[in-house]
Amino acid sequence: MKLIDSFLLLFVFLLPQFSIDKLENFKYFFGLIALLKITQELLKGTIRVKSRGFLPFFLFFLLCAVSLLWTSKLSFEKSFLFSIGSMLVFSYSYFLLLSNEGNLRKVLAFFSVGVVFAALQVLILSIVKSNVFIVSGRANIIGMDANESAIILCIGLAIFLFFFQYRKIRVLKVLVVVIIIVAILLTGSRTGSIALVTVISFLISKAKLKPYARILLLLVFLFSILFSAEYVKSSFSIINEQGNIDLQGRDETWKTGVGIYIKSERKMLGFGYESFSAELSRVMWKANAHNVFLKVVFELGIVGCLLFILILYESGKYVLRRDHPLRLLYLSIYLIILFSFLTLSWIFYLITWFFIVLLYKTARIPAVWYKL
User: Fold this and answer.
1) Distances (CA, A) of 16 to 66, 202, 352
2) SS3 (DSSP) at 308
3) pLDDT at res. 81
4) Are 330 and 359 a contacting pair, CB within 8 Å?
């Protein structure tokens, strides 16, 4: 029985290092392990208790599946049902795994170590000028774009720094922080850079660090910026040559997407799963929504948006609870995720649902349990 949990922890280690969504054969193996986890809890008779709170998740994925009935033929793919099923089984298996509070610390540890390897991957591929980067000159984790890579690395950094405050400072730990920060800056992601500054500022001001540790963390951050000066400059080039804010076409995408939705008769249930790009291509170029909330309301309508907001509310309702033992980490990850939803379209990624389930379960750990 413990072997199944070990495999789930192994997947947590692998999640930040490459996109599992794009490896169909690996997803089959992972799906089998997730189904075995669900079967295990069913046989133990604990599935009913551990499933409390999963109903909004289930209804959201059910709506995704049902929406395939009216998804445009332009965007429909046979793999869509498999992708939705993968997200459901994936989310449910980790929902069950994290119902045991003892597994939470292991999951955080495995993920943070995985992020260190992901950061090393970005660093090494940048040095050798790899051709696996999706956008030339902007580093990324294999299979993920630069913005998604930056957010994943930021969350890993937040986890690492949270535990950093309770341990003696070692040279190796400082080096790891430098590697992750440099990797984030190498992505050239404005979204990631803003999230990075937010995390560093928040932890320096709020974490239980000694004065010299705060100064050291600030110096490490500044050194990392200097080391990646070229990429930092490109990350913050928000103003174009004409002096206007450059959103790289996102503003036109948002305006057109909102316009199509408002004029349509599909406001309640939307245009269907993964239909945004296809519907947009009817009136302009094919593009991602670059906003999770716009994507959800466009594809799943008001009903889907309300379910999604309910999930986010339930995941963040205790974020300001003062006696929460992981409050600082919990709030950091929650803010990073919400911020990423404003500029990315990654709602139907396995790793995104891992973060949401992690937040939901982290919110509900007993205050007396967690001892560092």
Assistant:
1) 30, 23, 11
2) helix
3) 87
4) yes
Digit-coded pLDDT (tens) for 55-96: 999 999 999 999 999 887 666 677 888 889 999 999 999 999
**Burial state string for 209-229 with b = 16 or more CB within 10 A and e = fewer than 16:** beeebeeebeebbeebbeebe
> Residue 303 in contact with residue 269, Cβ under 8 Å?
yes
Among 183, 105, 189, CA closest to 147: 189
As to burial, measured by CB atoms within 10 angstroms (0-12 exposed, 13-18 middle, 19+ buried), residue 117 is: middle
What is the spatial distance between Cα 138 and Cα 334, in angstroms, rounded to a whole number? Answer: 26
Single out the residue of 257, 242, 332, 326 nearest to residue 291, CA to CA: 257
Report helix angle 292-316 to 327-343, nearest 10.
Answer: 170
Please state, in angstroms and rounded to a whole number, the distance separating the CA atoms of residues 110 and 107: 5
CA dist., res. 294 & res. 298, Å (int): 6
DSSP per-residue string spanning 7-51: HHHHHHHHGGGB-GGG-HHHHHHHHHHHHHHHHHHHHHT-HHHHT
- Sign of the torsion angle spanned by Cα atoms 231, 179, 5, 366: negative
142 burial level (CB within 10 Å; 0-12, 13-18, 19+): middle
135 beta partners: 138
Q: What is the DSSP string of 187-249?
A: TT-HHHHHHHHHHHHHHHHHS---HHHHHHHHHHHHHHHHHTHHHHHHHT--B-TTSSB--TT
pLDDT at residue 153, as a whole number:
93
Asked if residues 107 and 52 have their Cβ atoms less than 8 Å apart, the reply is no
- Give the residue among 151, 153, 177 at the shortest CA–CA distance from 163: 177
What distance in Å separates the CA atoms of residue 93 and residue 87, rounded to the nearest whole number? Answer: 10
pLDDT number for residue 304: 95
Q: Mention every residue, 6+ apart, whose C-beta is less than 8 A from residue 228.
A: 182, 185, 186
CA distance 248 to 245: 9
